[in-house]
Specification:
- By secondary structure, the protein is mainly α.
- It contains 17 helices and two strands.
- Strands 1-2 form a two-stranded antiparallel sheet.
- Helix 4 crosses helix 5 and helix 11 packs across helix 12.
- The protein is globular and about 70 Å long.
- About 25% of the residues are buried.
Amino acid sequence: MNLKGKIWTTAAIGLLLFFSTCKKEEVPGDLIGNNDAPYYGKISTVLIQNYVNRLFIDLIGREPLDVEMEEEVAKLRATNVSFASRDSLVTMLQEDESFRVGDSSYKAAYYNRLYELFKVKMLEGASDGDVRRERGLISGQLIHDSLAGDWYNHAIKKSKIAKLDAVLAIDEEMMRGEIEVKDAFARLLDNAVYDRINMNTFNFIRASFSDLFGRYPTSSEFDNGYDIVEYNKPAVIFGKNASNKGEYIDVLVNSREFYEGILRWTYGTLISREPITEEIEAGLNAFYFDHDLPALQKTILVTNEYANFN
């Protein structure tokens, strides 16, 4: 081979080595996985509009107004629907306190939406009107007990009214950061509406496990839970001691399985599937410790899977 041929051969080998070592930039697309990311600049306007529409419905319970749609689509398009721009939109809908006609604010609408979803999960979708009617019935009985001098039952009914009032305050108190997700579910387990839906201790124990964890209790969990709630008898549940209904509920909503149950429910409500093992492990590493449901939602809402950008 002549000198010229050797030079061309060397150059070809060099180019081959250069291109073989080049790697495409990795962009997070799904919650777990290595799917190739699309070129976001080519995503159609219709897909971006669908994404914005879905976010508004899932987070604040309504479709965006025309002006909101135009503004948010323009922002996403200007940044090629970057993950930062998606994060910004989700954050706005969860946290923005600016006055909005009909919503008070996005933040108020967001926490009201959470509250409504919680009631669907725990109270078969009972409205605030249903809760207030239950409160009215108990208030009438409270007056009767007072007139009869039955102060024992008067105190019981007064406590029931306070628990119903606590349910009605969930969205406002969550919005102000005064309670967190476990407190909301504790209130939804311990009130007269839940008791009416799941009458007697047998049904209450089964329902509390089913509603929180998506499963029924084992024989030992049921037996111990029944003793605790029905007889105020000390027993162990989830490795913790409890001796009354309040303590039983407290153990349940502080368990790791409670946070896993909420994580699974969040996946189901947002992308209609069960999380895979890796997603559960990654999600619980944060959620079990920070109890930050909005942050958990955001990890799903910014993905290509949720946005249908794959």
